[in-house]
Amino acid sequence: xxxxxxxxxxxxxxxxxxxxxxxxxxxxxxxxxxxxxxxxxxxxxxxxxxxxxxxxxxxxxxxxxxxxxxxxxxxxxxxxxxxxxxxxxxxxxxxxxxxxxxxxxxxxxxxxxxxxxxxxxxxxxxxxxxxxxxxxxxxxxxxxxxxxxxxxxxxxxxxxxxxxxxxxxxxxxxxxxxxxxxxxxxxxxxxxxxxxxxxxxxxxxxxxxxxxxxxxxxxxxxxxxxxxxxxxxxxxxxxxxxxxx
Length: 245
Hints:
The chain contains 9 helices and 8 strands. It is of the alpha+beta class.
């Protein structure tokens, strides 16, 4: 009859093994989290999606979306974006002002904003896209659209960092209540328009068309049809635009 075997593990060994397991779990969790973010270019995607790669030119429609800049500008920038995406706000904060002053305001380029709401991770993005369209409707101008566009990103900066020029650090949560208030701050009563879902299909059309062009993450830009992916620095836009002038 064989002797019963026993295994003795020291407390120090248990602690060592537990620490190792915990570290492994944290590493796997971090991997899963960052597979949905490209932190090099600043692009955010839905779970399971891939960040689009740059390639040849694509025929991209501007649809009937809001245009900022000279309609006859030689360069057209079509932006597919998500109002709740922190990387889209990063572009608006860090790159857009210089892009606007040096190329849009001077008539060299125009920019068209098209919605690409990543609703699985940004549940307020769809309503925000509709709110901007409602502001354009109520204000009866593209100018009203761009005021609401700026207002939504600005308010998120305040909620995120405590100042309108603070660093972008996280996704900010908001609802239709805030969207309506922000619009009223600008003088636009969008309550009935937003509640009716009048522009739900318009935002959905942008998403569908963007996907057909290969857009899978936000922000994504087409400079005269050539894809520029992510919250790129101004120098990247300058190179792309200058090549078209």
